[in-house]
């Protein structure tokens, strides 16, 4: 195995905490290579930040600046299929079980001390499932913008929880998860549309939440009827990135990361529902989480908000010690409200003596 390291050019503070230098590493085992960023004292308690779709570890730049200043050893990997980590060609390689194994290998490499694991979007799935299957690896769990589903994150578990007052079943059978279904029926076309203009796709995806969207039909609920995320155009409209979410240098790094493998590997995560359900069934104690869990909800998140619906019910039932904080943000909450996200985690860490 190997661990190559280098400093990240242009690493800088991004709105929270003092500037720190992010150091780039690659940890390689016979089964996988994980690229990760690190900062903070080497002997500090470990905090691992896990991104979701369609991102890279650099999305946690502000959080890493803040918590490394607090004395934490901060690590943010690129998950498989993303950034500088391995991107297998086989879509079947992108199961949650495989990704949890990647994170376990990385955690062992980092010393294996119980860590605070912070996830967003699909990263919350990884963090939640790791905490369920290998609880000794976590002191506490932070989930952001996607609730934990002890039976596995899959269409079979999320669609029954759709708010039918917004999405009548006869008109929107998959509710806001219609885009998820589209991946399973038109995968190559979905990926081609996103790959047609990488910068515009990413800029159009990473937009701040809008309070006017609460209770309204999500654009993601009509992807199938529109023939794709971008409809008949089959490419993203020209869109300038929002520097309040991704600072310019970080957004450029994000685009460069997607220029290597495109959207295919990251989108392949949506193709492995059966494996996700089977993996969840193998968790001890029915997937119940005994560690302290913080869930940070975006009130304006049209896909994953747990406010005013039943999407958070399985998580509430499965967590022994759950804290829920809700914020006026959309799905990209860790980028939209960087300082507020940090403070929510800090408060929870103090309250739970972590």
| Proportion of residues in helical segments | 25-40%
**Averaged pLDDT:** 95
CATH class: Alpha Beta
- The coarse silhouette is globular
Query: What is the number of beta strands?
Result: 9
* Major sheet attributes: 9 strands, mixed
Portion in beta strands? 15-25%
The chain-level structural class is alpha/beta
The string of secondary-structure elements, in order, is EEEEHEHEHEHHHHHHHHEHEHH
List keywords for this structure.
single chain; 354 residues; alpha/beta; Rossmann fold; nine-stranded mixed β-sheet; 9 strands; 17% strand
Describe the structure.
The chain has 354 residues and is α/β, with parallel strands linked by helices. It has a single domain (2-351), classed as Rossmann fold (3-Layer(aba) Sandwich), CATH 3.40.50.1820. It is 34% helix and 17% strand. It is built from 14 helices and nine strands. The chain has helices at residues 61-69, 96-109, 122-133, 155-158, 178-185, 187-195, 198-205, 223-226, 248-261, 264-267, 273-281, 313-318, 333-336, 338-351; strands at residues 2-7, 23-28, 33-39, 46-50, 73-77, 115-120, 138-144, 289-298, 319-327. The protein has a nine-stranded mixed beta sheet, sandwiched between helices. Strand 2 (23-28) and strand 3 form a beta hairpin. The radius of gyration is 19 Å and the shape is globular. The two termini are 32 Å apart.
List the helices and strands and how they pair.
Layout (H helix, E strand, L loop, with lengths): L1 E6 L15 E6 L4 E7 L6 E5 L10 H9 L3 E5 L18 H14 L5 E6 L1 H12 L4 E7 L10 H4 L19 H8 L1 H9 L2 H8 L17 H4 L21 H14 L2 H4 L5 H9 L7 E10 L14 H6 E9 L5 H4 L1 H14 L3
């Amino acid at each position: 195995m190997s661990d190559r390291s280098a400093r990240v050019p242009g690493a800088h503070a991004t709105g929270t905490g003092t500037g720190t230098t992010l150091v780039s590493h690659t940890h390689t085992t016979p089964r996988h290579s994980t690229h990760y960023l690190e900062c903070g004292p080497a002997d500090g308690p470990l905090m691992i930040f896990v991104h979701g779709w369609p991102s890279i570890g650099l999305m946690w730049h502000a959080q890493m600046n803040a918590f490394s200043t607090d004395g934490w050893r901060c690590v943010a990997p690129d998950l498989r299929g993303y950034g500088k980590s391995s991107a297998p060609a086989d879509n079947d390689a992108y199961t949650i079980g495989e990704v949890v194994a990647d994170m376990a290998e990385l955690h062992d490499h980092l010393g294996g001390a119980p860590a605070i694991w912070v996830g967003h979007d699909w990263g919350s799935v990884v963090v939640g499932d790791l905490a369920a299957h290998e609880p000794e690896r976590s002191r506490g769990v932070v989930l952001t913008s996607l609730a934990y589903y002890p039976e596995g994150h899959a269409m079979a578990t999320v669609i029954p929880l759709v708010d039918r007052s917004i999405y009548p079943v006869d008109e929107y059978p998959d509710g806001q998860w219609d885009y998820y279904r589209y991946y399973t029926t038109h995968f190559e076309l979905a990926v081609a549309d996103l790959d047609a203009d990488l910068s515009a796709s990413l800029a159009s995806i990473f937009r701040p939440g809008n309070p006017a969207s609460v209770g309204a039909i999500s654009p993601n609920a009509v992807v199938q009827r529109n023939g794709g995320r971008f409809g008949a155009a089959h490419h993203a409209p020209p869109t300038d990135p929002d520097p309040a979410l991704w600072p310019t240098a970080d957004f450029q790094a994000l685009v460069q990361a997607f220029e290597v493998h495109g959207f295919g590997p990251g989108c392949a995560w949506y193709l492995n529902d059966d494996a996700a359900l089977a993996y969840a069934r193998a968790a001890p104690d029915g997937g119940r989480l005994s560690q302290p869990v913080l869930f940070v909800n975006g009130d304006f998140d049209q896909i994953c908000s747990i406010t005013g619906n039943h999407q958070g019910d399985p998580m509430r039932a499965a967590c022994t010690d759950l804290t829920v904080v809700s914020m006026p943000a959309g799905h990209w909450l860790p980028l939209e409200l960087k300082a507020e996200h940090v403070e929510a985690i800090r408060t929870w860490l103090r309250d739970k003596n972590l």
